[in-house]
Amino acid sequence: MHYTELGLVNTTSMFADAVAGRYAIGAFNIYNMETLVAIASAARETRSPVILAVSESALEYMGDDMLMSMIAGLRLSPEEQIALHLDHGHSFESCAHAVDIGFSSVMIDASDRPFDENIDLSSRVAKYAHAHGATTEAELGTIGGHEDEFTNAYDQLCTDPADVREFIMRTNIDSLAIAIGTAHGAHKMRAPTDQIRFDILGEIAQKVPGFPLVLHGASQIPELFVTEINRNGGNIQNARGIPNDQLRQAILMGITKINVDSDSRLAFTAGVRLELTENPDGFNPREYLALGQSAVYENAINEITQTMGSANRLK
Predict the structure, then answer these.
(1) Which of 20, 51, 109, 201 has the lowest CB atom count within 10 Å?
(2) What is the pTM of this model?
(3) What's the pLDDT tens digit per position in 91-137?
(4) Could you confirm whether 109 is annotated as catalytic?
(5) Which of 17, 87, 148, 174 is catalytic?
């Protein structure tokens, strides 16, 4: 099925508008019906363009047919400006498969390969995606941290600004994920004084003005979620995210898309744990999953309005 049959759009127009308006598009990872409905509802409530991001492991968990049936159930229209994006595809086959089943955007992550191999694989994916009207993101540099079994990098290597223009020209990609000090998972900064490498971001933006730049590993890790989880039986220690003021500065300097995964996971878990703790005799999944869904929805509303600046941007 082609993504246009589902009312989805690719990222071309939404990124162009974001660059012109100096705001970012939120790419929110989804894992099940509850997170999908929460993010789509938040986008509709705020009249914001949004990207529904699905990792390889999440796609494996939900299954092709179940995911695409849930997307169809949203009854989207192109005017809502919602894209379905493969997050961290690690092979040509996984990216091509996503395009074939109806994704409108794919990310090929060959950042662990030598420069020329990264270019070869990224350009091959971009060519295939473009032939089907889909858009492509690639990664240059290595974003550290752990997200799932498919996205796990112990070493972090910041993007070299000197490589960026050549990489974009040779791959023909539509957006570029850069490594500027953020990390996957709930432990993004070693100390409260750590900062995004704005010096590197500034150099990159200067070399490719107006080109859509993407920030992974940029969840804020709200303390209220961590506290709620730990208060209700969890044990998340030393979690630290990216402060909102740093994200806002990054957007003003050229970041066009910000990935949000850990924040949604924490919000969902906090909601479920709270419900199970306050109602220990309850065993109805609809009740505790509804609290998780509500928490993800409220967090997405906050991220869209207070961080991305993308609310009320639909034409």
Answers:
(1) 20
(2) 0.94
(3) 999 999 999 999 999 999 999 999 999 999 999 999 999 999 999 99
(4) no
(5) 87
